[in-house]
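In response to the reviewer comment on reproducibility (Comment 2.3), we provide here a single inverse folding case reported in full, input and output, so that an independent group could reproduce the run without further information from us. The structure tokens appear first.
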């Protein structure tokens, strides 16, 4: 029962955090472009890409949380296959959408968004199809616990902070290169 609360809380947290990142990202995208010294001739395209990419954040986080749950169940192969399918979908969508759409930057960003949705959907379907065990997810009966969500945040924050430091350093390097 506790595992179900942790899994349910994790999936709810992934959606909540994804929406927060989406909103904060879209609001702060111009600032990110400014601090990275984005060239003026690339600014509008970069802003379009960032806004669409931030729209993908909820699905990216759902995939990451769901694939972590799948790996905990002892299956590391399936998340790899789902990210591989997502990557191949991204490549094909890039080609197709770049032929169809006039705005190439938006085409590439939409391909990224859709491919992330594919990966997240496959991972969540996998969790729903687990026959038995603590990692099986019944989407209609997700259990949520503020306490368990707090524990997930407490344990996950150091890894998230470390990952954020890499992103911040990349923005600084990009700014120096620009």
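Designed residues, in position order:
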């Amino acid at each position: 029962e506790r595992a179900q609360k942790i899994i349910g809380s994790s999936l709810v947290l992934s959606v909540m955090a994804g929406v927060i990142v989406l909103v904060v990202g879209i609001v702060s995208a111009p600032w990110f472009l400014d601090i990275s010294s984005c060239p003026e001739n690339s600014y509008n395209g970069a802003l379009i890409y960032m806004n669409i990419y931030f729209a993908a954040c909820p699905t990216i986080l759902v995939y990451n949380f769901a694939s972590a749950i799948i790996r905990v169940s002892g299956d590391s192969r399936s998340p790899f296959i789902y990210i591989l399918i997502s990557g191949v979908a991204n490549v094909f969508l890039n080609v197709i959408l770049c032929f169809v759409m006039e705005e190439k930057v938006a085409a590439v960003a939409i391909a990224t968004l859709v491919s992330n949705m594919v990966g997240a959907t496959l991972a969540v379907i996998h969790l729903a199809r687990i026959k038995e065990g603590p990692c099986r997810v019944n989407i209609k009966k997700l259990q949520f616990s503020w306490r368990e969500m707090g524990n997930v945040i407490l344990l996950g924050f150091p890894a998230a902070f470390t990952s954020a430091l890499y992103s911040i350093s990349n923005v600084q390097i990009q700014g120096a290169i620009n």
